[in-house]
Structure formats: C-alpha cells, structure tokens
Design a protein that fits this description.
It is a single chain. This protein has three domains: 65 residues, Orthogonal Bundle (Arc Repressor Mutant, subunit A), CATH 1.10.10.10; 130 residues, Rossmann fold, CATH 3.40.50; 135 residues, 3-Layer(aba) Sandwich (Rossmann fold). It is 44% helix and 18% strand. It is built from 13 helices and 14 strands.
C-alpha cells in the first residue's frame, strides 16, 4: 500500500510537469503544501525528500524547493529508443511522431541500439541522468531476460513515464504498451488465404519477441477455427541474429525455410514485408511462380509491399495511427490523465502475391 507521503510525492510530480510548462520552477512552501494536502509538515518533508531522491527537485537552504535544472532542461523532451531508427518502417513512424509531438511543443530525440543490449543500457543511463519528460522504448527481444530492467525501473522511480512500443519487457506488469493486435492480424491473413482456396499454409516469424509469437498464435487459432490443418513443421521461428544476416544480404535462414518448411505448402505468411520481398525474389529465382505456385503475404504494408511486378498482400496499420497513439499517451501523461495500453487493428491491402 502506498504511504501518504508517497502519494503526495506522486501528485507533486504531476504538478511539477505543469509548472515546467508554465515556466515556473519554485515549489510552494512547506506550509502551503501542508494546507493543500491536509497533512503534517513531517509528511510534506518526507514527500519532498522522496522527490529529491528521484532527482526531480533540489532544496536551497533558506529559499525552498526548486525543480532540478536537468529536469527543467528536458521538460519537453521525449526519448525514443529503438533497435534501428533507419529500419524500413522507422522513418515514417518517427516523422509522424515528431509532427504529432511538435503540436504540443515536445521534442523527440531518437536513439538506436543497433541490436545491442549494452547500447540500450548506455541510452537508459543517459535517460536517467538527463530526465526526459517521457521514454518510449521499442524492446530488442522481450522474450529473452534483459539486464537493463533495473535501469528502466530506476527511470520510473525518478518519475520518467515509460511507454513501450510494439512489445514490452515482461517486468513491470503495469507497463503502458502501444502495439498492433498481432494475433488478430495473423488470423485475418489466414482467413484471407483460406478464402483464396489455400489449405496448406506455412509461416516464418521471429521467436525472441512476442510480436512473432503472437502472429504464430494467430495462425494456429485461425486454422483451428476454420478446420484447416496446422502443421508446425511448416513454420520457421527465427532469431534476431538470423534477421541481421538477411539485412546483410545473406539468405541462409530463408533458404532453410524454403527448402524445409515450404514443402507441400501453397501459401506462407511472413513476419514482415522485408522478409516477404526477399522470399518472393528467392522463390522466383528458383523457378516457381508467385502466387500461382505459392502465395506470399505479410505484415507492415510498407514500400517493400509495393515494389516490383508482384505487389505483396500485406496487413498494415492505418497511416500514422501508431504515432498518434504514442503521442496521445504522452499528452495524457502531460495532462495528468489516465491512458491505458492500446492494441491497434490491422487492415489488409490485397495485391498480386496472394
């Protein structure tokens, strides 16, 4: 149970953020706070000490309590931590989020981990030092235990709101998550392929992130509901390091998938458009036709889906809906309002691939 002084400290954090937006840096006096919260001076002092420990305020002898300079300097800054800010879906999201935040005078600073947990840790330590208004984190691979969880908890303890994008680290449980409804998206693609007459369907998904596992679950669920055979040998679950090989131009895991999992399959669902594009290229070079011999569908509805003479049928989110949802979460926090985790619905764009 939260103590009274902790509850007052939490309320003061919300007030501090409003003060920063108003250009004020001095907190009310202890006597004023006692009157406002109907509590003793000792309780107020304990609340202020907690805020001082969190790095939110500094006490000046004889003058009172003030917002810490480093908190003030980043009062309207949002940090975004992602694996690669240049990844094919990232630039559009970042541009959309920057535009949304700019309307409320917030600045977005982007940081790439390049797939390294150690780099993620360095960025989180920077966040703890510099105290941004909020922290948006796109996890590297949230199924694997992460040594940076204590840093995320430290950021939260210092009053930095944490918003997870696409997936969330498993701890803490009250995390705010903005993501697509991946299970329903996979179900939609299975139903689409079934309507096109496909019964033997395979898939290729990322295994070290809940996004891929949710898509795998959706395929299984839809096949069971439609009475289609679910053959687990037709699904390849890859790791992040294998995807990095693909980005470098090495198609080893795609070759293993095509040679093993796609036997006797007439359709495949890919984790994303980049994989689908590479797979279609490899299938066609091997002499098979898309979609006549094998249909290929995927997720993201990105520019990869529209490239070449075989456009990819792909499930995508409405334009900038993900950016809007993240910005809405930041604004709700700024306004002291409750904002709950959101699952955004996919929409299928049908093209030639299946």
């Amino acid at each position: 149970m939260t103590s009274k002084y902790e509850g007052i400290a939490d309320k003061l954090e919300t007030e501090i953020r409003q003060m920063m937006r108003d250009g004020r840096d001095r907190l009310p006096s202890e006597s004023d706070l006692c009157s406002k919260y109907s509590c003793s001076r000792q309780t107020v002092r304990m609340a202020l000490s907690l805020l001082e420990d969190r790095g939110m305020i500094v006490k000046k002898k004889g003058s009172g309590s003030f917002i810490a300079p480093r908190v003030s300097s980043n009062a309207n800054t949002v940090f975004f931590i992602t694996e690669d800010e240049d990844r094919y879906t990232s630039p559009a999201f970042i541009q959309g989020l920057k535009a949304q935040l700019h309307g409320r005078k917030f600045e977005l600073k982007c940081f790439s981990t390049n797939g390294f947990v150690s780099t993620e840790g360095e960025i989180l330590r920077k966040a703890v030092r510099e105290m941004p208004f909020a922290l948006i984190i796109e996890p590297l691979h949230n199924v694997i235990p992460n040594p940076n969880i204590p840093l995320i908890l430290e950021a939260r303890s210092k009053g930095i709101p944490v918003i997870y994008l696409n997936s969330a680290y498993r701890f803490p449980e009250d995390s705010l998550l903005i993501s697509a409804d991946n299970t329903e998206g996979a179900e939609m693609l299975i139903r689409h392929l079934a309507q096109e007459g496909h019964k033997r369907i395979g898939g290729i998904f990322r295994i070290d992130d809940t996004e891929g596992l949710e898509k795998y679950k959706g395929c299984m669920k839809a096949c069971n509901e439609l009475g289609l055979p679910f053959d687990e040998t037709g699904y390849y679950l890859f790791r992040t390091d294998e995807l990095n090989d693909l980005i470098r131009g090495e198609r080893g895991f795609l070759r293993r998938f095509a040679d093993g999992c796609l036997r006797n399959k007439t359709a495949v669902i890919c984790h994303d458009d980049m994989i689908a594009y590479q797979l279609i290229t490899m299938i066609r070079k091997g002499g098979k036709r898309v979609p006549e011999d094998i249909a290929v569908v995927s997720f993201d509805n990105s520019y990869y889906a529209a490239q070449g003479d075989v456009g990819i049928t792909s499930a995508g989110l409405p334009e900038r809906s993900l950016a809007r949802a993240c910005a809405d979460a930041v604004f709700a926090i700024a306004d002291g309002k409750t904002y709950r985790s959101r699952r955004l619905p996919w929409e299928i764009t049908v093209r030639k691939s299946g």
